[in-house]
Amino acid sequence: xxxxTQSPEALRLQEGESSSLNCSYTxxxxxxLFWYRQDPGKGPEFLFTLYSAGEEKEKERLKATLTKKESFxxxxxxxxxxxxxxxxxxxxxxxxxxGAGTTxxxxx
Amino acid sequence: xxxxxxxxxxxxxxxxxxxxxxxxxxxFQATTMFWYRQFPKKSLMLMATSNEGSKATYEQGVEKDKFxxxxxxxxxxxxxxxxxxxxxxxxxxxxxxxxxxxxETQYFGPGTRLLVL
Lengths: 108, 117
Known about the structure:
The complex is a heterodimer. Chain A is mainly β. Chain A contains no helices and eleven strands.
């Protein structure tokens, strides 16, 4: 069974304090690793898809990287509006398997 | 990115009644849509996979007679919670799979908050 583990569970940052979120996974036949952002009471918002080890994607202050066993979401110089829960998911044979998420709080 | 809508955003109903939730892909066609349930401070739990024109595939432990899914067109899937009870109160989220070239991406709706009294 596909498994996704995210760490840490929660992350409190000062505005401008860069950090990284980790997503470790085991999957039979990776067909994509996905990062989503979820705000309270809302559905997940798509951020990135990574397909192969060594791949990197960037969007504003976010950068996602992928190895054969894990992915990192780097947040550079975060702002309060980056506060959210970040979800990692892997696509195996037929469905997405989600991690529990990392809740990021950025203080001004 | 692609847009998925859900209606209603929140619904309150009495125990024993049925509630229908609609999920629409607004700017793309989706042969496959998914229904998830999310408990407070928990991640998404896949309930079922909805395929246009065929029966939905339910995850283990999900009652197909209680959670009726219909995917009648390439842009609309519905989830009906039949004979709802307080334990069915939850946040229900749908998603639609978009295929472009060799890439597949699931886009999520904004969710529906169901409260059963």
